[in-house]
Amino acid sequence: MRVQVPDSFVKSRKAVCLLSGGLDSSTCLALARREFHCYALSFDYGQRHRVELEAAARVAHALGAKEHRMVKIDLRAFGASALTADELAVPKHRSAEEMAEGIPITYVPARNTIFLAYALSWAEVLESSDIFIGVNAIDYSGYPDCRPEFIAAFEHTANLATKAAVEGRTRIKIHTPLIALRKAGIVKLAAELGLDFTLTHSCYDPSPDGRPCGQCDSCLLRKKGFAEAGVRDPLPYCS
After folding, report:
1. With contact defined as beta carbons under 8 Å apart, do 154 and 116 qualify?
2. What angle do CA 85, 50, 75 make, to 5 degrees?
3. Terminal CA-to-CA distance of the chain, rounded, Å?
4. Model-level pTM?
5. Degrees, nearest 5: CA angle 144-146-147
6. Helix, strand or coil for residue 69?
């Protein structure tokens, strides 16, 4: 996929980009910076794979984010997800058919709703009309807050909820450039954009030294995407 920037374009607008440090959000930031001054936003929400925050910091720096903010919230207070509750195990060794069936236990209740609300707040402060999120509704684990219907609904709500929008000074746009891409397509796009894959982290259950497990849903989908794209994944998987 070739990304074209119009000759007449002048990069002057600001955008808030949600950044986890994973493949998708990093690719999204790499794409957004072609047209926007990017302000990266990450969350320490009590996730068991906090090593992703180190990846987010690396990616934000490497891709030249104007600013990178790390916001601490506590979703462990509610649990009910294998990413925020120690008593729930991260699923491993699941087949593509199993991953496509139902909503997995790694779903964090209302996570993207919360993240987008924070991004909306910062965007209004920055006088920005644009928010980027690397959700994907095709080659992913079936999270309900990654669907186009959810994004459209949040965008509608955002334009009802903010002073700038109500006063007619802006129109909030939620950008989801990866939403209809398969993981292989995301890998190819990232490679074209020059993303350094060694900076990213995708694993839900990394080893104590930060290496990806290689067997959780996120690792398996990432491996599949790289294999189908014909691109070498440089991460040192445990298995």
Report:
1. yes
2. 40
3. 31
4. 0.93
5. 75
6. strand
Q: Answer for the pair 23, 202: CB distance below 8 angstroms, yes or no.
A: yes
- Looking at the domain covering 14-229, what would its CATH class be? alpha beta
Q: Provide the residue-wise pLDDT of the chain in tens; the chain has 239 residues.
A: 344 444 334 457 999 999 999 999 999 999 999 999 999 999 999 999 999 999 999 999 999 999 999 999 999 999 999 999 999 999 999 998 898 888 999 999 999 999 999 999 999 999 999 999 999 988 766 799 999 999 999 999 999 999 999 999 899 999 999 999 999 999 999 999 999 999 999 999 999 999 999 999 999 999 999 999 999 999 999 98
Contact 99, 142 (CB under 8 A): yes
Three-state DSSP state, 225: helix
**CA atoms of 212 and 233, how far apart (whole Å):** 12
Let me know: does 205 contact 48? Beta carbons within 8 Å.
yes
Residue 232: both structure tokens together? 């070498």
Annotated domain spans of the chain = 14-229
Cα(47)–Cα(123) distance, integer angstroms: 24
